[in-house]
Amino acid sequence: MRPKAGDSRNFFDPKVLSELRGLELRARRIMEGLVAGLHKSPFQGFSVEFAEHREYAPGDDFRHIDWRVFARTDRHYVRTYEQETNFDCYVAIDTSESMQFCSEISDISKYEYAQLLAVAIGWLVLRQRDGAGLCLFDDEVTKVVPTSNAAAHVHRMIESFGDARTKRSSAIGSCLHNLSRRLPRRAVVVVVSDLFDDHDQLVSGLKHLKHAGHDVSLLQVVDPAEQDFPYESPTLFRGMEAMDDHSVDPRSLAASYREEFEAFEKKLKFACQKHGVDHTLVRTEEPLDVAISRCLRARRALGTRQ
Amino acid sequence: MNALSWSRVLPVPAFSFTQPWMLLGLVLAAIPVLIHFFYRRRYQEVRWAAVQFLDAAVKRNAQRHRFQQLLLLALRTLAIALLVFAFAGPMSNANLTLSQATGSRHVVVVIDGSLSMQCREADGTRFERAIDLAVKVVESSGEDDTFQLVQMAGSVPESIIAQPTNDRDQVRAALKGLECSFRRGEPERAWPLVLELLKQSNSGKPTAVHLFSDLQLHEWRDTATDVNKKLLADIAKQSDLTFVDVTDRLTPNLAVQNVSVDNDFVTVNETATLRAIVQNSSNTVTENRELRLVVDDRVVATRSVSVNPLTRLAVTFQHQFATRGRFRISFETDADQLTADDRAFGIVNVYDDVPLLLVNGKPSAQRMGQATDFLELCLNPAPEAGWKTPYKPRVVNEAELGTIDVQSYSVVFLCNVRQLTQSEVARLRSYVRSGGAVVVCVGDLVDIQNYNGRFFGKTGLMPGVRFQEVIGNSEEPLEAFELDAARLDHPLLSIYRGNPGHGLEQVLTFKYIRAAVSETSNGRTALQFRNGDPVIVESKLGAGIVCLTTIAGDDSRWSTWNTASGTYVTLMNELTQFAIRTSRSVQSTTVGEEWRRPIVASGSMTARLNDKSDLVPRVSRVESESELVIDEIPEPGFLSVFSETGTDEYLIAANVDVAESDLRSISESALRTEFLPGSEFRVRNAGTFLTADQRRTQAGGSELIFLLFALVVGLLISELLLASRVGLTEWLIFGTITIAIVCLMFLPASRVATLIVASVVIGGLLGRRYYRTAG
Q1: Which of B40, B51, B60, B726 to mutate to probe the A interface, most A CBs <10 Å?
Q2: How many contacts does A have with B, using Cβ atoms within 8 A?
Q3: A168 contact B CB<8A
Q4: Which residue in chain A has the smallest CA separation from B38?
Q5: Is a pLDDT exceeding 50 seen at residue B694?
């Protein structure tokens, strides 16, 4: 499953889509704005044009249960409206050089995996009539595709990727600062990146987004080799993003490397919990549906706690 | 603890190798280094994103990683190097002192030159092998090493190089110039000399003593006295003592020894029984070996003999001599590994008759009135009855004693001679010392004072013996003295032993001259009265013998011994035979010993050994007496000594010491337990005493090789554990196993088990490593 950039058919792989179809993307917070239907909103009745019935699910507002249908069928259905979801979801994708990494044990680079994730999330959001947008960044925000709830918007998102791969280094923290200033209103911001950057700046950017009222999710995409460090023979590691090269005996270094990686993850997770950001580590070998499901479960769990 | 003691507990490894060319393999030790650099160059290249973790890990592990790499490299290199060392056959002196390892030392080389060293082994004689090994020691010595050289053989060990020298050419030449002797080995005689040399060296250098010997069993067992043990222990304490056993195995050896003649004296055309002992000192039966009797260089008889292991067999030949004279006889077998003892020599005197001189001290015209009459009759009692004796007695008056040539008589009897002049005593003394025999028969005329002053005096014939008083009264016998017939242990009385009723117990004596025999004298009582007073006393003097009877033989009133049961006849014949047998018959000696014989002639003497080599005898004079001395008879055979005037002539058979024929060696364990308990020394076999390229002796070569292999195993285990990056628990397990292996390593019986355990451990670790890698 190695899609070519700009080839939208890959992103609508039936298998991927069928797996995503039963999922629910729920905003964890009560969104400001015109959110109705599935999402709790302080602004009710913004649009009442009936669209269809949908089976009741825990969390749905009792007021939307269609009691007539219940009387006829003895089952709970809620009424949905054309513009019941009206939140914006921005998927921010890291396009820096480190995202191009693809190890021998993986079939897909982190960037390609991030693209799939973005499109899948965008498709999901659009399916709910919410607005989906896209943001690309490396050491700066290079492109922002405004949100739209049109079904065809996903194609625009895909086309926006273009040849976005760069050889520049990443500066996630500053990009998040920039993004928080550029987003016109509060939104769900899904950051897809390997997050291999300065921890403090990253947390600072996250805090800024949170402070601006955005609902932030971190999808950390890593290559399995980056986490497991499975190398045996002497290896010259050439640093991406103009980092130093290291010629090492991986066997003698693996344990320390893993410890460093785990420490970074632990520290990041702690910071995310502290600031109400859900964080999900995704390995590029992981199926997309599983990854997105885990992301949504993490969001739901965080929403329940909050 | 002095420096020497410290040196004993602090061994300094100084290695040399049996196969030094194997050390070329040390270049293999470079393999791990080459592999290391090779792999450093042959790395894979990966573009890497998560550099920040790698960077941190590298920074955190940089020192440990570098140390681990170097340690692994060192372990691998060392393992290969030790393996190469092990294959090169290392030798070291475990007891080398620091100065030995780094500086010079003083070596006392002791070569055993005894007869048994002539034994031929596969590559030459034991002596030649000892010399070769000693030369190699010298040739491979350091420039500043000094040497002293001792050859031990016989009673006088010889210091060949007495002053320490570092001139290797001199030492080598001295060693090459040594010859193996025919002497017996007396190693204990060499110890004081070796100690003296060690003391002389006094150079402050560490000292070593190398004894090259066949360690003959009897030489050591016979001399295992406390004094000798202490001397040897002192040597071991003061030096680095090494016994180099130059024997290969227990060599079969058949030896001929102890040539003798059964007859008291051999006369012309009488059948003589010639006897020799054949000894087999090996553990195998010697079958059908030919034994030859050679008389005057002519083989006269042969016989096939078979001798059981470690036994002696007496072999006799019957032979008749057609003429009188002295005959050279020898018993010979076929040559074996030790040829020197395959032949034994003897001299046989063949007589027409035996001339005896009877000095009559009591002239008388009456029949049987002279002092010698009865004795003359006894010595030839019944010629008309066919009782033929070889004796040819001649009776002379005492006045003739001063002028007659006594040397031509086998025995001189002094029968009731009243007095002896000083010159007569001197002549008789010279005669006895040169191998003659004198028998004194007392009587009523004997002047006790004269005898005590001259005959029994210091310069007399029986020093230490004295007449005391006349006991009893022959005229009016009131008391009778009986002979002690129960004591028959003297050879003179051998004829009576086992013959009850022989007559001695019936003899009654009424008068005798009491004689006292000093314990410090050579006098020995052959027959005595029941009261302990001597009846017959014999005393050796020089090569001859003097006998004394304290009962008159010519007067039946003194005793019934010349009337009762023919006792006097028997005793006088036995006494005469005994006197002849123990005087003139002494015609053999042992190689390596000093030979001396009193001489009468004043002219120069010549000695010739085996009719070819001339020896130079010297004349030793003590007061007025002369002795001919040959300091040492160097080889077995016949020695003839004669004067220019022809007045004196001796023929002596020289034989090797019979003990040298036993070629068994003393074991190392016996050396350690019996001779040097608690002392440090080494015993090396010639095959393992490898001195070709080094000046150090081997010390536990096999142990060292085993140790090296064990170290290699330990290094490999360590390498595996290190490379596998094991945890604390595994290190603890490894430590326990290592300690167990080290403990087991020093128990020889458990070495196989140790290697098995080590193999299992290594195998397990390899498997584990492979499993991890594969996983």
Answers
A1: B51
A2: 104
A3: no
A4: A234
A5: no
Determine contact: B52 vs chain A, CB below 8 A: yes
Report pLDDT digits (tens) over B385-415. 777 778 889 999 988 988 888 888 889 999 9
Q: What is the mean pLDDT of chain B?
A: 80
The amino acid occupying position B275 is R
Is A196 part of the contact surface with chain B (CB cutoff 8 Å)? yes
Which residue, B658, B638, B14, B5, is CA-closest to B348? B638
Q: How far is CA B256 from the centre of its chain?
A: 17
Closest CA relative to residue B236, chosen from B677, B673, B696, B701:
B677
Antiparallel, parallel or unpaired: β B207-213 and B146-152: unpaired
Per-residue model confidence as pLDDT tens digits over B168-218: 888 999 999 998 888 888 888 888 888 888 887 766 778 889 899 988 888
Distance (Å, rounded) from C-alpha A24 to C-alpha A38?
Answer: 9
3-class SS string, chain A: CCCCCCCHHHHCCHHHHHHHHCCCCCCCCCCCCCCCCCCCCCCCCCCCCEEEEEECCCCCCHHHECHHHHHHHCCCEEEEECCCCCCEEEEEEECCHHHHCCCCCCCCCHHHHHHHHHHHHHHHHHHCCCEEEEEEECCCEEEEEEEECCCCHHHHHHHHHCCCCCCCCCCHHHHHHHHHHHCCCCCEEEEEECCCCCHHHHHHHHHHHHHCCCEEEEEEEECHHHHHCCCCCCEEEEECCCCCCEEECHHHHHHHHHHHHHHHHHHHHHHHHHCCCEEEEEECCCCHHHHHHHHHHHHHHHHHHC
Q: Does B731 touch chain A (CB under 8 A)?
A: no
Q: Do B53 and A261 touch (CB under 8 A)?
A: yes
**CA B2 distance to own-chain centroid:** 36
- How far, in Å, CA of A174 to CA of A205, rounded? 6
B54-B56-B57-B59 Cα dihedral, nearest 10 degrees:
120
B39, B52, B60 ranked by CB distance to A234: nearest = B39
Alpha-carbon distance A125 to A147, whole Å?
A: 10
For B485-508, what is each residue's pLDDT tens digit? 888 899 888 888 887 777 888 888
Q: Which two tokens stand for residue A157?
A: 């998102």
The pLDDT value given to residue A46: 31
Instruction: Say which DSSP state B560 is in.
Output: S
Q: pTM above the 0.90 mark?
A: no
Task: Write the CA distances from B369 to B373, B477, B553, integer angstroms.
Answer: 7, 21, 11
For the question of an ipTM over 0.90, the answer is no
Give how far the C-alpha of residue A167 lies from the chain's centroid of Cα atoms, to the nearest Å: 22
CB B73 within 8 A of CB B33: yes
Give the closest residue to A165 by CA, choosing from A6, A54, A1, A59.
A6
pLDDT band at B469 (very low <50, low <70, confident <90, very high): very high
Mean pLDDT across B316-324? 91
B9: confidence class by pLDDT, cuts 50, 70, 90: very low
Predicted confidence (pLDDT) at residue A9 exceeds the cutoff of 80: no
Candidates A231, A240, A256; nearest CB to B47 = A240
Task: Provide the β-strand partners of residue B351.
Answer: B267
Contact predicate B570/B552, CB 8 Å: no
pLDDT of residue B613: 65
Whether residue B53 and residue A260 make contact (CB cut-off 8 A), yes or no, is yes
Q: What gap in Å lies between CA B54 and CA A255, rounded to an integer? A: 11
CA distance B182 to B340: 8
Rg of chain A over Cα atoms, rounded to whole angstroms, equals 20
Rounded-to-integer distance, Cα B342 and Cα B278, Å: 9
Burial category of B2 from C-beta neighbours within 10 Å (exposed 0-12, middle 13-18, buried 19 and up): exposed
| Backbone CA torsion sign across B348, B349, B352, B357 | negative
Structure tokens at B715: 């290094």
